[in-house]
């Protein structure tokens, strides 16, 4: 049990806990608890949570590889935490009308499909390593969420770039699955 709960896995669990907290700051803006808050504070807190979660994403992978602490549990928790963060970010942004429902639908559909495909591939003993397009896709999705959260210029364009890269990397995973 202690080997499974190493620092990288604890960071992934922390990231999983941050995802619903970030979503809360997006969708519960009318809660009486926050009646004295300026609307921009919700963006700042959601953005801060997102940055913290993104930094833990980098460090849990870096530490797991550097300290040779890669585990099967980590192989499940890390992508789950990533998906939960992306899900919370894009759904929250859609609720506050900053992200296109079509863009969110396309991104999340791809994420669910590829997650299912990866589970099938693993059960068949096939390699499901991340591709470079998949890694770039994740970075651009994170940038899109950050820009949309802060309501910065070009946020919508970055979101659609994320959609294109998301669909392309999904194509790569699917192609590679059927090649093997």
Automatic annotation (TrEMBL):
Q: What EC class is this?
A: transferase
Q: How does it sit in the membrane?
A: Multi-pass membrane protein
Q: Which InterPro entries does this UniProt record tie to the protein?
A: CDP-alcohol_PTase-I, CDP-OH_P_trans, CDP-OH_PTrfase_TM_dom, CDP_ALCOHOL_P_TRANSF_CS, Phosphatidylglycerol_P_synth
Listed under catalytic activity are:
a CDP-1,2-diacyl-sn-glycerol + sn-glycerol 3-phosphate = a 1,2-diacyl-sn-glycero-3-phospho-(1'-sn-glycero-3'-phosphate) + CMP + H(+)
Show the GO cellular component annotation of the record. Answer: membrane
Keyword list (alphabetical) reads: Lipid biosynthesis, Lipid metabolism, Membrane, Phospholipid biosynthesis, Phospholipid metabolism, Transferase, Transmembrane, Transmembrane helix
At the top level of its lineage, which domain of life is listed?
Answer: Bacteria
Please give the pathway this protein is involved in: Phospholipid metabolism; phosphatidylglycerol biosynthesis; phosphatidylglycerol from CDP-diacylglycerol: step 1/2
Tell me, in one coarse class, where this protein mainly resides: membrane
As for subcellular location, the record says: Membrane
Give the E.C. number(s): 2.7.8.5
Any Pfam family the entry gives: CDP-OH_P_transf
Where does the chain cross the membrane? 7-27, 42-63, 84-108, 152-171
Q: Recorded GO terms, molecular function?
A: CDP-diacylglycerol-glycerol-3-phosphate 3-phosphatidyltransferase activity
UniProt key word Lipid biosynthesis? yes
Q: Which residues form the signal peptide?
A: none
Which GO biological-process labels does this protein carry? glycerophospholipid biosynthetic process
Q: Which family does it belong to?
A: Belongs to the CDP-alcohol phosphatidyltransferase class-I family.
- Supply the name of the protein: CDP-diacylglycerol--glycerol-3-phosphate 3-phosphatidyltransferase
Specify the species. Answer: Arcobacter cloacae
